[in-house]
Write a structure and sequence with these properties.
The protein is α+β, with helices and mostly antiparallel strands. It has one domain (20-156). The chain has helices at residues 2-18, 22-29, 42-50, 61-64, 78-94, 145-156; strands at residues 35-40, 67-75, 98-105, 108-116, 120-129, 134-144. The protein has a 6-stranded antiparallel sheet with strand order 1-2-6-5-4-3.
């Protein structure tokens, strides 16, 4: 019985260790050759949230003030591209993301995913691949659905 418990505990630890977040993917790929990477920190989002934006057509202060990270990876190296694509797909599956949309056009595929409860969106991810590049983007934080709806409504005017 002890052996079974130890095996189950070891399996659980291995699964927990292999769990990923956007920061893990970013850290793993951002310094590799042929990878373009962008990270925006919570401090930058807080700063954006404090900027006066009266003259802008789009007020993003409400949407960005509680974001905790923006991660972007653009990979063109064929081997690295395939690895990132596979890991990004595992990332959205393991995170229980819901697919928002998929668009396919002339060899390019774009998929957008989110995690939310209807009132708030806590994570957004996008994977785009066209055979020459793979782009992974993730936005983490807590954005109210009302703020998103307001941004969309403003753009539709």
């Amino acid at each position: 019985m002890k052996k079974i418990i130890l095996i189950l505990a070891a399996l659980f630890v291995a699964l927990a260790a292999s769990a990923q977040d956007a920061r893990t993917l970013y850290t793993r790929y951002s310094d590799l050759p042929g990878v373009q990477a962008v990270y925006i920190s919570p401090a930058m989002f807080r700063m954006i949230g404090k900027l006066p934006m009266q003259d802008m057509d789009l007020d993003v202060k409400e949407a960005v003030k509680s974001l905790s990270g923006f991660y972007l990876l653009n990979v063109s190296d064929p081997d690295t591209r395939m690895k990132l694509k596979a890991e990004a797909n595992r990332f959205v599956q393991a995170g229980k993301y819901e697919m928002l949309m998929e668009a396919k056009d002339d060899g390019e595929t774009v998929r957008m995913y989110s995690i939310g409860d209807g009132e708030y969106v806590s994570s957004f991810a996008m994977i785009s691949e066209d055979g020459e590049e793979c782009v992974f983007m993730a936005i983490e934080g807590l954005i109210s659905q009302a703020a998103i709806d307001k941004l969309i409504e403003k753009q539709m005017e």
